[in-house]
Amino acid sequence: MISYKLNFIEENGIISGFSITDLSGEHETKSMISGIYDENKGTMKFQEYDILYTKSPVTQNDFCFINFEGKLKKISDKHKMEGNFKGLFKDGQKCIDGNISMLNINRIMKRAEKMDKKISRSKLIDDETKNTISFVKTLDTLNNGVLIKNENLNIFSKSQNVKLVYFDGGKIDGDIISISVNDKFIVENYMLTAEKKELLIPINNLITSIKIYAINEGSSPPNTMNVEFTDFKNQIGTYTNLKKGEHTEITVNKVE
After folding, report:
1. Closest CA to 219 of 192, 256, 188, 239
2. Tens of pLDDT along 54-91?
3. pLDDT surpasses 70 at 145
4. What angle do CA 136, 137, 140 make, to 5 degrees?
5. Rounded to the nearest 5°, which phi and psi values hold at 234?
6. Are 129 and 123 spatial neighbours (Cβ–Cβ below 8 Å)?
7. pLDDT tens digit string along 163-217?
8. What is the Cα–Cα distance from 87 to 70, expressed in whole angstroms?
């Protein structure tokens, strides 16, 4: 089983948006989707057609794109979507087939909130344990994605320049980071704050490597930093989770 998330809008029966496969996993991949929704028949069709980013160490041409057809009674938080998909490489050759079963995220969040309330009211669980359990926070963490030690987020972009925004989105605890572009440091020993800092990075080569280093872990380990990557049409949000001395990497692959 592989986690799968859809984020889309529907307008006059036309579907557009993106999918995320293996959310927060070592092969997390975000792809563009397009499709058709027929409210009268309660059916939905969509296909993945382009990759925005992936953690997998493979090229764009190696990916298996999902072509889905299934049942969806209403686009609301009260119904689930399920059906079969065919996996196709970009050249149309078959790769793998399977089944998708999904619930609206709002419905899942409501269930998580109910579970958190039950735990907080329970007399069988001590207060210390209660403070460490939160289904809502866990879902929020999965929703945002994370970059950990030695991971490489491959981003595919047609832009001449990309913008990297970085800041501490949580407790300000003295986390210090450094950032290099193609192994040349452009930010050194910077202490993160809530203020958003921007880097405009030229994409002159087929591959541009951006590495983020944890210099310390602050007063509340580990070292965490929010990252927003933007090119001419896409924005990717993630955050780093590193111990002192560790680093993670974003690789921008230039495409025509």
Report:
1. 192
2. 998 766 567 899 999 998 877 665 677 889 999 999 88
3. no
4. 90
5. -125, 150
6. no
7. 999 999 888 999 999 999 999 999 999 999 999 999 999 999 999 999 999 999 9
8. 15
Amino acid making up residue 249? E
User: Would you state the structure tokens that stand for residue 240, as one six-digit string?
Assistant: 């780093």
Other beta carbons within 10 angstroms of residue 194's beta carbon come to 11
Collapsed DSSP state (helix, strand, coil) of residue 61: helix
d(CA 169, CA 145): 14
Two structure tokens written together for 63: 């990916």
**Dihedral of alpha carbons 27, 32, 35, 40, sign:** positive
How far apart (Å, rounded) are the C-alpha atoms in residues 15 and 12? 9
Q: CA–CA distance from 43 to each of 17, 81, 85, 117 (Å)?
A: 17, 9, 13, 36
What is the layout of strands, in order, in the sheet containing 161-167? 197-202, 161-167, 223-230, 235-242
Distance CA 171, CA 178 (A): 19
**Quick check: 157 and 255 in contact, CB under 8 A?**
yes
- pTM for this prediction: 0.75
With a CB cutoff of 8 Å and minimum separation 6, the contacts of 63 are: 29, 31, 51, 54, 89, 90
Query: Cα–Cα distance between 202 and 33 in angstroms, integer?
Result: 28
Q: What is the spatial distance between Cα 208 and Cα 159, in angstroms, rounded to a whole number?
A: 12
Residue with tokens 């557009």: 16
Backbone angles phi, psi at 236, to 5 degrees: -120, 125
State the residue for tokens 């591959």.
207
Per-residue model confidence (pLDDT) at position 76: 66
Q: How far is CA 140 from the centre of its chain?
A: 11
Spatial distance between the Cα atoms of 85 and 65, rounded to a whole number of angstroms = 10
User: What residue spans of the chain are helical by DSSP H?
Assistant: 105-121, 127-130, 135-144
